[in-house]
Amino acid sequence: MNKPLYCSVIGLILCANTALATTSIDKLLQQQPVKNCQQSISAIADQVVKSNKHRFHRPESAFSLAQFSALGVIEYRDRNSHLNITTTTNTDGRCESIVTETFVVPHPCITAREEVFKKWQFVGKLNAATLVLIDRGNPETYAYLSNAVDGSICLISTKFFVKHDAVFAPS
After folding, report:
1. Distance CA 153, CA 8 (A)
2. CA–CA dist 14, 12 (Å, integer)
3. Residue 59: what are its φ and ψ, rounded to 5°?
4. HSE-CB of 11 using CA atoms within 13 angstroms
5. Which of 6, 82, 133, 164 gives 95 a disulfide partner, CB atoms 3.0 to 4.6 angstroms apart?
6. Which residues contact 97 (CB under 8 A, 6 or more apart)?
7. How many CB atoms lie within 10 A of CB 162?
């Protein structure tokens, strides 16, 4: 094979791989495939990460190929957040994901509640410092706001559930 043609083929392969992998979740799925839900996991990551700089890590584990878990960091303009995506199959063979994003804001939780979560319904408290809220528009989405340090910062975790249409058919 002549060198220019070989370089063009290699370049095409690299471009194709880059086009397929839009988040680092896709790269993890290529390195450590799971039997099911790869497209759904990829779509969830795309939805949450958008065009923000990010990186995911999937520790090697003894879990079956039917389960996927990865933790990543997303760099937003004003903060970093941790994102955890865990996907497994339920007893019906359908894939389910739990997505948890955690970050801190440099002001009290009451301010975050009034500015960001004002339309969310108050569910209760986990303890004296932690509020539990639910998104009225999406009842599968929760927020947990905890006063931290001396109450001057707020630790926020949001959690939502995704039930996938795909059915896992064990081989």
Report:
1. 53
2. 5
3. -65, 145
4. 6
5. 164
6. 37, 40, 41, 44, 85, 86, 87, 161, 162, 164
7. 18
